[in-house]
Amino acid sequence: MLSRLILFSFTYLLVFSAHGEIRVTTKTLAEVALYPEAIIPASVLSLNNSKISAQVQAVVKSIPVLVGERVKRGKILIQLDDRDYKLSLKQAKVALEGAVTRLNFAIYQLNQSTALAKEKLISDEILQQKRTNVMSLKSEKDSKVAAVDLAERDLSKCVIRAPFDAVVTERIAQVGELVNPGTPLTSVVDTVNLEVSAKLQSLDIMSLDGSSEYYFVTDGQHYQIKLRNITPVFDPIQRNKEARFIFTSTRATPGSTGVVQWRHKQAHIPAELIIKRGNRLGVFIANGEQAHFVVLENAQEGRPSHTVLPLSSILIIDGRYNVQDRDKISLSSTVK
Fold first, then answer.
1. Which of 47, 215, 278, 282 is deepest in the core (most CB within 10 A)?
2. Which of the listed CATH numbers 1.10.3470, 2.60.40, 1.10.287, 3.30.200 matches domain 82-157?
3. DSSP 8-state assignment for residue 122
4. Is 192 helix (H, G, I), strand (E, B) or coil?
5. pLDDT band with cut points at 50, 70 and 90 for residue 38
6. CA distances (Å), 243 to each of 73, 90, 254, in order?
């Protein structure tokens, strides 16, 4: 017991000066500040995960792609039997030729009748009939043109092409199968229009806003990304927000999982300098000859805490456990 009392007295003499001041050492926040890395789980999402369906009725003739194959935009995915549609197009073109012939003849008759009408050799009623006939045949010709366009469009639907650079993820239709409009044929995933999705808590959002360089890390590979936006509403169940990033150059594979990584731009106070007074966590700063306890609202024990204190703030290092708010202090030499 006596030895403990002697030790306490010795410690007291070291800490307190002759004038009742507590001796402390200090450093500026700039000297001790940390800028830790933040990491949150994330995954790569494709903006287009499309199920390609038939638009016409036909028999599947061939499927020249396999599941897992990468295809460029415009690559043929499915070939349907187009013979019926070629015949329909041929019929439509023949009908159009007939309509054009009839129209040309009607225009010839109208020109002749117009000349005769000037010499008063035919009545105005007959001339008006010729004009009406030309207008009617023009409408018929326009209808036949539309029929040809429609037949050509239906024929083109017999070849189903990749709408974007993609990976084939499913082959649904089978060769020889009769499909109808709306029948699913194959599924493809866009490999160009990708985004990285990450769920953020409040502290993550504060940190994310102040950073400029972000990386998506998966299987040891680092992909540079940039923040596109943070969803302006909280998920009502998870109480978080979704952040979406886009790749700036090389892209990861759709469906990849990993982490989004960035470095905090805001200064953090090291965990060992954060102490508890009452039920609050904070840090002591030296304000002239007086100690002031600054509460860190979001601090957690054992973890660095971000702060809005100026980098010029003078933090108490040695002696921080012995002071209370507004205690008088005297400064030893600044810690090197």
1. 282
2. 1.10.287
3. S
4. coil
5. confident
6. 29, 54, 17
